[in-house]
Amino acid sequence: MTKPVGLILAGGLARRLGGGDKGLIEIGGRPILARLIERLGPQCAALFLNANGDASRFARFGLSVIADEREEFAGPLAGVLAGMEHAASHFPSTCDLLSVPADTPFIPNDLAARLIEARADAGARIAVAASAGRAHHAVALWPVSLAGDLRQALADGERRVSGFIARYENVAAQWPTTPYDPFFNVNRPEDLAEAEALAREADVLFQ
Ligand SMILES: Nc1nc2c(ncn2[C@@H]2O[C@H](COP(=O)(O)OP(=O)(O)OP(=O)(O)O)[C@@H](O)[C@H]2O)c(=O)[nH]1
């Protein structure tokens, strides 16, 4: 299995949390980013962080930071494009990008493997992670060769990740939600208490 290039999407404004960087929020005593890097790093050939503004605030994580081309906050697709273009210029043009938002602390260890398998089985171009019957469109495996199409789609005003994915053959790979939903994400202040509780469980189970 050829490992994908990993991209953590941390380019948003976290408005529902009052601003700041969701990836720097500590859950169970550790930043979400540290948790993600631990889980995603071994699954990827290389790992990058997509974020806007002063990159030095992420220096302690030791990842190269790739900004959106324009700091206009066009949404997650702008981050996926930055990641695809970076990957295309540093890795073979046939490589894949695995995108994961910076607000999902508990992604599964078999994320890359199962997305690769689901995509091959379905003969699809894009594989998306799903749980509880819901697709998590920002958690997806993309061929970086779609960068040109994505650039054009953004220029045409496409902002929905699901809208861009729907243009291609795609498949959703389902994960169980027990003992916890691996795609639980932190969006609102009230999600923080749940994240703390989940971290206690996830830390015991994650080996
Ligand atoms: N590169 C980039 N990523 C973004 C942008 N907007 C959102 N994201 C990322 O996309 C993922 C899903 O984002 P949302 O939860 O919808 O947005 P958010 O900014 O994190 O939070 P809200 O402002 O509260 O919606 C997160 O990983 C964000 O960091 C953007 O304009 N550029």
UniProtKB/TrEMBL annotation:
Domain (MobA-like NTP transferase) ranges: 6-168
One Pfam family from the record: NTP_transf_3
Principal location: cytoplasm
One annotated Gene Ontology cellular component of this protein: cytoplasm
Keyword Glycosyltransferase: no
Swiss-Prot/TrEMBL keywords: Cytoplasm, GTP-binding, Magnesium, Metal-binding, Molybdenum cofactor biosynthesis, Nucleotide-binding, Nucleotidyltransferase, Transferase
Binding site residues for Mg(2+): 103
SUPFAM superfamilies documented for this protein: Nucleotide-diphospho-sugar transferases
UniProt-listed GO biological process terms: bis(molybdopterin guanine dinucleotide)molybdenum biosynthetic process
Catalyzed reactions: Mo-molybdopterin + GTP + H(+) = Mo-molybdopterin guanine dinucleotide + diphosphate
Keyword Cytoplasm: yes
Binding, GTP: 9-11, 22, 50, 68, 103
Localization annotation: Cytoplasm
Entries under InterPro entries matching the protein: MobA-like_NTP_Trfase, Molybde_CF_guanTrfase, Nucleotide-diphossugar_trans
Entry remark concerning the domains of this protein: The N-terminal domain determines nucleotide recognition and specific binding, while the C-terminal domain determines the specific binding to the target protein.
Function: Transfers a GMP moiety from GTP to Mo-molybdopterin (Mo-MPT) cofactor (Moco or molybdenum cofactor) to form Mo-molybdopterin guanine dinucleotide (Mo-MGD) cofactor.
Family affiliation: Belongs to the MobA family.
Subunit: Monomer.
Name of the protein described by the UniProt record: Molybdenum cofactor guanylyltransferase
Species classification: Bacteria, Pseudomonadati, Pseudomonadota, Alphaproteobacteria, Hyphomicrobiales
